[in-house]
Amino acid sequence: MRQIPLRSDLRALSGYHSPQVDVPVRLNTNEAPFAPPAAWLDEIASAARDIDWNRYPDRAATELREGIAALHGVSAEQVFVANGSNEVLQSILLAYSGAGRNVTMFSPTYQMHAQIARVVGATVVEGKRNVDFTLDRAEIERIVAESKPAVSFICSPNNPTGTVESRENVEAMLLCAPGIVVVDEAYAQFSPWSAMELVNDDTPLVVTRTFSKTWSMAAARLGYLVGPRWLVSDMEAVVLPYHLDAFKQRAGLLALKFVGDMESRVRDIVAGRDRITAVFESLPVTWWPSGANFVLFRPESMSGKAVWQGLLDRGVLVRDCSGWAGLDNCLRVTVGTAEENEVFVAALKEVLA
Ligand code: PMP
Q1: Ligand 1 centroid to 93 CA: how many Å?
Q2: Distance from the CA of 145 to the center of ligand 1, in angstroms?
Q3: Are 204 and 179 in contact (CB under 8 A)?
Q4: pLDDT over 70 for what percent of the chain?
Q5: Among 119, 159, 201, 265, which is 20 to 30 Å from 339 by CA?
């Protein structure tokens, strides 16, 4: 076998892995626990027949971008869509970072920010969070002054801690950062505020969103950003031709007709989150307030690994963060359906007993 070595700077990277174990209750990847509305499935099934499958899709994804723009009260020229918000993040990093440029984020945070930055050849400079995972303005200013980042990430709510970033901190970052500021809002619908209100053509701010969580469309891979017009038009320099297929464009557009269903599901998830944290209060665990569809917690009487295994033995898969830097012994549970949440809390009580 003649094997060509991988780029040496990538060999040290481990990639992004979340084990997909086949268990009855999967609460490890922050997806929506519900299928999309049945009416959406019907519409998309008939939409499949109307597509000109022999033709390339609308390269500009015009209708979908108009739909998303209407949802947020912005112009379609401020919206860029791609295959999952991961591809949106990758496009931003391709356009504005790269070799010889710094990219900052505040750890622990969503690992793909650093991973993609490294893959595109940029240098990652990580700032620190406080012990409760909040972020100090002084730390924002320190990291920016030291690294002059081409791209800075703020993840709000932050994965995996659930922490909601304050508007003051986002504004502080915008005041000092010399480059693009990305607020990753993959979980914004569960959170009390959004940086979307700060987006305009004079500010190098981008807010990224996904259809993978609240919209129950993780299988489709669809995400977008809202940002200044000049930035959206810069994306053309890095994105592949016809990157977003016609079927997905229709799927996303049709999903936007179901905002009401989506909002009611968000309310159910938030209620589920409250139920889980109420149980945490009665158990030997530390947990952190979450503005997302998951909660980070740390068992105090047993190792995180042992609790993870105990839950798995009972058919419940959560995310094992116990080996991640700054997250000793921590586990992250995604809020599921009411039934799944009950299975989880019963299993956790048993494991900790
Ligand atoms: N940002 C954050 C903070 C996430 O947690 C995720 C999903 N794990 C993503 C972005 C990527 O989402 P997707 O590519 O499915 O849109």
Answers
A1: 15
A2: 28
A3: yes
A4: 99
A5: 159
What does the domain layout of the chain look like in residue ranges?
8-36+260-352, 38-257
Judged against a pLDDT cut of 80, whether residue 127 lies above it is answered with yes
All residues at 6 or more sequence positions from 213 whose CB lies less than 8 Å from its CB, including other chains = 30, 31, 32, 186, 187, 189, 293
pLDDT at 261: 94
Q: Does domain 8-36+260-352 have CATH number 3.10.50.40?
A: no
Pocket of ligand 1 from Cβ distances under 6 Å: 30, 84-86, 110, 155, 159, 184, 186, 210, 212, 218, 223
**Residue 3 reports pLDDT greater than 70:** yes
> How far away, in angstroms, is 334 Cα from ligand 1 center?
13
What separation in Å is there between the alpha carbon of 197 and the centre of ligand 1?
21
CB 109 within 8 A of CB 93: no
For the 38-257 domain, the top CATH level (class) is alpha beta
Cβ neighbourhood burial of 193 (10 Å; 0-12, 13-18, 19+): middle
pLDDT exceeds 80 at position 16: no
User: Does pTM top 0.90 for this prediction?
Assistant: yes
Q: What is the mean pLDDT of residues 280-307?
A: 97
